[in-house]
């Protein structure tokens, strides 16, 4: 037996040695620490990327909402301003003379909110030289009469109407307040101006040019500032006005940023004809 073992030149492994040989390979399976760290790092990059996509989509949505609100805000202010300006000089009752209806407007006894006063028979008057900003911007006052038996249904700049069967005079005063807002106050029957109503926000300035028929040809032949119209005594010759509202441009990168006097602006220009002169 010994000779047989010696001829083989080796010894057979014991049962315990064979078991260890089978177990050792199993101990080396699974993830190493480096592999685990790489997997965690990849997961972090994916999470960061998804977060950036979400934040970008949210920011875009906020910017679009801000832009949409700004455009709607601008339209509302301009529409109300235009609708009221068109009525300048409207007279609901019968003329008191054979001249044009505009001359039948009763003379107002009080000054407007900006200190101006209407020329007899005129339905529009303003203040400003076209270069002011904020609360120092141009202002305009629109005067008309409404109501009476016919109940014309005409509204003032705050949506109010004349009482039934009552001739009522309205002065609609438009100006920019110290909070960069286009506002309108209404004075009824020579009374006191009521609380201003905000028509549009984020308005940097309002400048106004008045279309004047200086030679009584029936058409506008020149545009003047309120200062020049007043100097030349041409309020009765105003046939149209050109209003420029400079709105603050929405900050799409930071929608919640506050506006300042140096913030960029976008102009909205509107030319409006007076129906009483058409």
Automatic annotation (TrEMBL):
Annotated organism of origin: Sapientia aquatica
UniProt cross-references to InterPro entries, sorted A to Z: N_methyl_site (IPR012902), PilW (IPR032092)
Keywords: Membrane, Transmembrane, Transmembrane helix
Residue spans crossing the bilayer: 33-55
Protein's UniProt name: Prepilin-type N-terminal cleavage/methylation domain-containing protein
One GO BP annotation of this record: type IV pilus assembly
Signal peptide interval: none
The organism's place on the tree of life at top rank: Bacteria
């Amino acid at each position: 037996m010994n000779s047989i073992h010696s001829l083989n030149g080796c010894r057979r492994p014991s049962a315990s040695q064979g078991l260890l040989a089978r177990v050792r390979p199993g101990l080396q399976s699974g993830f190493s620490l480096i592999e685990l760290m790489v997997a965690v790092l990849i997961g972090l990059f994916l999470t960061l990327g998804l977060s950036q996509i979400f934040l970008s989509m949210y920011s875009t949505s906020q910017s679009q909402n801000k832009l949409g609100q700004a455009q709607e805000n601008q339209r509302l202010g301009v529409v109300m301003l235009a609708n009221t300006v068109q009525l300048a000089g409207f007279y609901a009752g019968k003329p008191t003379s054979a001249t044009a209806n505009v001359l039948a407007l009763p003379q107002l006894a009080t000054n407007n909110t900006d200190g101006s006063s209407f020329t007899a028979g005129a339905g529009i008057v303003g203040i400003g030289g076209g270069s002011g900003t904020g609360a120092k911007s141009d202002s305009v006052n629109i005067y008309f009469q409404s109501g009476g038996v016919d109940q014309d249904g005409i509204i003032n700049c705050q949506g109010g109407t004349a009482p039934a069967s009552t001739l009522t005079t309205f002065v609609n005063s438009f100006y920019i307040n110290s909070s960069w807002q286009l506002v309108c106050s209404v004075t009824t029957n020579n009374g006191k101006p009521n609380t201003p109503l905000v028509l549009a926000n984020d308005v940097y300035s309002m400048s106004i040019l008045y279309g004047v028929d200086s030679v009584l040809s029936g058409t506008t032949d020149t545009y003047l500032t309120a200062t020049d119209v007043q100097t030349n005594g041409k309020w009765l010759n105003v046939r149209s006005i050109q209003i420029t509202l400079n709105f603050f441009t929405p900050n799409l990168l930071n929608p919640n940023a506050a506006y300042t006097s140096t913030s960029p602006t976008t102009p909205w220009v509107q030319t409006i004809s007076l129906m009483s002169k058409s």
